[in-house]
Amino acid sequence: MTEIKPVPELEELKKQWYNTDAVAFEMINAMKYRESVFIATNKKVTQRMLKINAVRFLYMNFDRYRFFEQECLYNIYNSVAHFPELPMGSFRYEEKREQQAKFNANYMEFIKGYDLFIDLDNPNFQLVYSSAKLLKEIFDSHDIRYSVIYSGTKGLHFTVEYQNLPNELKQLSFDKLAKLFKLFAYELKLIKKIKDIDTSVFDLRRIKKVPYSVVYPYYRVALPLTDEQFENFNISDVFLPNLEPEQMKRRGLLTRQGTTDGLMVLMKEIAIERKKSEQLFRLCKTKKQTLYGLMKEMELI
């Protein structure tokens, strides 16, 4: 396998990007009250349990983990779950190891929210884009409050943040919510034929790329997209040299206006449509749980 080496000119641009206040503040707004994670693409190195709720903490972690050195070429992720009371980890490795073990054993106690996060992924980006157009049409027609973000590689991310979920879903425990979202994604993929929805991981420690971060080795930005940018999307538009960092100021996640009820309406539609098709899918002969069955069990339908 050919080793992908960093490009000095683009590494310098990356450093300038992260050192621009407009970019840093947008990243912090997305990272605040979540577990942040640095994952090195060229080594088996992962830094978890990073609490980055302010720009100075972002730069402190950059320095501590040698973010801009070629020995560790990191990409930046954060949790799908909300951790407003995440413990502040030590920069001393021995202490951090103990803190990490304790947090891993008790992380459920710290979760205060969990987003619906749908990842569309395929080596062929044109197929991903076709799937994303279909999903976007469905979300728009149901007036759902969501954002769509280019992943920086070969995917597109749709997110409904916890505060934008229907009240009925906020009454559920987070483990049940994760289970419900996984079934919803699976049946949405099946019923609406959105082939590129990734249903492999929906656990409570799930992570995703941080919006506005630069993704190595492609030097593309994980950029939230407006409707116009989505409709006219071109990979070259998110290539780092083609973006002006100052234009990121106060841009946010570009969450669509809508209602919190739209998602519940869609979930019920998918569940009922799947139930009507049970015999076709021969589920009546299996014990596999369906979205309809789980929603009925949770008294959501």
Strand order of the largest sheet: 2-1-3-9
Order of helices and strands: HHEEHEEHEEHEEHHEEEHHHH
Per DSSP, what share of the residues sits in E-state strands of 2 or more residues? 5-15%
Radius of gyration: 20 Å
Task: Count up the domains.
Answer: 1
CATH architecture identity: Alpha-Beta Complex
Q: What composes the largest sheet?
A: 4 strands, antiparallel
General shape: globular
Number of helices: 11
Give the terminus-to-terminus CA distance: 51 Å
Secondary structure elements and pairings:
Elements: H1 8-18, H2 21-31, E1 36-40, E2 46-50, H3 55-64, E3 74-79, E4 81-82, H4 93-106, E5 113-114, E6 116-121, H5 125-141, E7 147-150, E8 155-160, H6 167-170, H7 174-191, E9 207-209, E10 214-215, E11 220-221, H8 227-231, H9 261-276, H10 278-281, H11 291-297
Summarize the structure.
This protein has 301 residues and is an alpha+beta fold. The protein has a single domain, classed as DNA primase, PRIM domain. The chain is built from eleven helices and eleven strands.
Keywords:
single chain; about 300 residues; alpha+beta; DNA primase, PRIM domain; four-stranded antiparallel β-sheet; 11 helices; about 40% helix
